[in-house]
Specification:
With 418 residues, the chain is α/β, with parallel strands linked by helices. It has 14 helices and 17 strands. The relative contact order is 0.11. It binds adenosine monophosphate. Adenosine monophosphate binds next to strand 14.
Length: 418
């Protein structure tokens, strides 16, 4: 397998799948350029080695072609500012203009292609008229499979080498994230974001220094089951926090008032607890909670035992005892994985538990632990507290990270490794 550090880019055109799916305001200005800045090292590496760059990405979920609201044209000024070089643009990612501009690219130059998802071929999902029959659906799917091959081939023909640097979409088998790699059997590589993500997650998944603690929070048991099952095989401690907690207490006969509860997950909870006992995994749950009389910042609050919450009250954050318990487990850990907040951290009143977890993780990291923070909301939380640069790695992954941690092979990763 080729690597970005050793590949010879001199005189080569590199097509890079980046994740420039950035938020825009009403005036179509980029409001957070984190994802663009993250891709800069890969792009600059190619340019510095004498290559030229063709950038391709999706933006939002356009439903037609073209859909000006979702044009990547809006982000050109930001890409130019972050990269420090002028950026050319092609109005149609596989049109004549893209072909001409790509062919004319000189070393050191950058071309950005229009939104890949203007074409349904990118995702391979047909755009069906409402009320389409099953037969029409099957027909459209078949036709799209064929045109997807053409689309992928056209994208591939623009360049000499393919780089995938979009970890956030690596769990999708789309034209630009996976299928295109087949056209570059000897010239397909991971960009730095992909390399770093894979390295960080593999370190936690395959080679964790013990004791290994996972903190799984968030709202629902149902969305975290597979990851919990996978982690039970590996961790020494599993801290369960957030809204999920109350389904665990309710399943064991606790009184949880109006807290979040998924009654259809009680069997799963019992299975998880039994397996943890069998494997000797210590499960740490919030024994007490900061409860509120409504789901609002101006709610009245009181601390309750998490298995004895009065009707009309709901658990919104870890209580003081729980926070101490979480902190002491985290402090003695050498590998820490954090996915999901342990309270409704978006409201300052209920952010204390999540902030304490974040601080304990940075403290353990300063003492030599390896810490990986991943999954949308824990990343938002660590950013909110300004602690992102004090953990070992913050994943950009979201869905891709979760699937990777669940033990699934990501199509975007497999396509390069094959
Ligand atoms: P998830 O996407 O499953 O990781 O869930 C994240 C969401 O869970 C955040 O928006 C939190 O506000 C929410 N959450 C955390 N703790 C609680 C709780 N005790 N009750 C309700 N929602 C919670």
């Amino acid at each position: 397998m080729q690597s970005i550090d050793t590949y010879d880019f001199k005189g080569k055109k590199a097509i890079i799948r980046v994740d420039f799916n950035v938020p825009l305001n009403d005036r179509f200005e980029v409001t957070d350029d984190t994802r663009i800045r993250a891709a800069v090292p890969t792009i600059q590496k190619v340019l510095a080695e004498g290559g030229s760059v063709i950038l391709m990405s999706h933006l939002g979920r356009p439903k037609k072609n073209p859909d000006p609201k979702f044009s990547l044209r809006h982000i050109i000024p930001t890409v130019e500012k972050d990269l420090g070089v002028p950026v050319q643009f092609a109005d149609d990612c596989v049109g004549a203009e893209a072909v001409e501009k790509a062919a004319a690219l000189k070393p050191g130059e950058v071309l950005l292609l229009e939104n890949l998802r203007f074409y349904p071929e990118e995702e391979g999902k047909p755009r069906l008229a409402e009320g389409a029959t099953e037969e029409e659906k099957a027909e459209a799917k078949k036709a799209l499979k064929e045109s997807q091959k053409e689309f992928t081939k056209k994208l591939a023909s623009l360049a000499d080498v393919y780089i995938n640097d979009a970890f956030g979409t690596a769990h999708r088998a789309h034209a630009s994230t996976a299928l295109i790699a087949a056209y570059f059997p000897n010239d397909k590589i991971f960009g730095y974001i992909m390399e770093n993500e894979i390295k960080a997650v593999d370190k936690v998944l395959e080679n964790p220094t013990k004791p290994y603690t996972a903190i799984i929070g968030g709202s629902k048991v149902s969305s975290k089951i597979t990851i919990i099952e996978n982690l039970l095989q590996k961790v020494d401690n599993l801290i369960i926090g957030g809204g999920m907690t109350y389904t665990f207490f309710a399943a064991q006969g606790g009184k949880i008032g109006n807290s979040l509860c998924e009654a259809d997950q009680f069997d799963t909870v019992h299975a998880i607890l039994a397996e943890a006992r069998e494997l000797g995994v210590r499960i740490v749950m919030a024994e007490d909670s900061l409860c509120a009389d409504k789901f609002a910042e101006d709610a009245d609050t009181q601390v309750c035992a998490s298995n004895d919450i009065a009707d009309g009250w709901m658990g919104m954050d870890a209580g003081p005892q729980a926070i101490e318990a979480f902190k002491s487990v985290i402090a003695e850990s050498k590998t820490i994985l954090w996915n999901g907040p342990v309270g409704v951290f978006e409201m300052d009143k209920f952010a204390g538990g999540t902030q304490a977890v974040a601080q304990a993780i940075t403290q353990a990291t300063a003492n030599g632990a390896f810490s990986l923070v991943g999954g949308g909301d824990s990343v938002a939380a660590i950013n909110k507290f300004g602690l992102a640069d004090r953990v070992s790695y913050v994943s950009t992954g979201g869905g891709a990270l979760l699937e990777y941690m669940e033990g699934k092979e990501l199509p975007g990763v497999a396509a390069i490794r094959q």
